[in-house]
Amino acid sequence: SSENVNVRGALIVLEGLDRSGKTSQCSRLHSYLAEQGIPAELWRFPDRNTCVGQMISSYLANKSQLDDQAVHLLFSANRWEKRSLMENKLKSGTTLIVDRYSYSGVAFTSAKGLDIEWCKAPERGLLAPDLVLYLDISPEEAAKRGGYGGERYEQLEFQRKVSQQYRILRDGTWQIIDACLPVEDVEKQLRKLVFDCIIACRNGKSLSPLL
Ligand code: TMP
């Protein structure tokens, strides 16, 4: 019906430590939304397909060295370069399921010892997520899952620091999901939260900037 013309999609972000199961839950959510006939796309940050993304990717693979501040700003620029497309997609009714966002940016860089407010500053003005789903797992449990790919941050000691930073960042609006539950249980919880969020956005919840 013509009522659907102005309906917007939801900006849904999954966060968590490396090996928390974000990526597979993102693709499960994407298939679920497709089955429901809800227009949705799967996004991820860093988006390694852009020029900036390639610089980040080479840094993560230890093929290049960059100062902590420089790489932080590249991660942020990588979100900024996708901002207008993101807004257009949302406004045209597409829901975005995003694997990592600004919170990863702040958690990972501040885990290196950089000032958290400095880390947040370049994120201000990006689109605020409608829902943040945090897949909660201890660094020790995540490490037991194995398969750390050997990229720069995939080490237990560093993941412990990242975990502490995520703890500082969380607020009452985040949904914390126990990532140690069976995959299907996690999936079930996520489906419900995502579905409700999409409905709230359809019903007029407005898009706002990240503060
Ligand atoms: P990925 O494994 O999800 O592709 O992410 C690559 C790594 O980059 C992961 O260890 C988290 C880290 N990261 C940051 O340090 N800052 C950011 O802004 C983002 C999105 C990821």
TrEMBL record:
Its EC number is 2.7.4.9. It is an enzyme of class 2 (transferase). Keywords: ATP-binding, Kinase, Nucleotide biosynthesis, Nucleotide-binding, Transferase. Residues 14-189 form the Thymidylate kinase-like domain. GO terms for cellular component: cytosol; mitochondrion; nucleus. Belongs to the thymidylate kinase family. This is Thymidylate kinase. The chain holds residues 74 to 284 of 286 of the full protein.
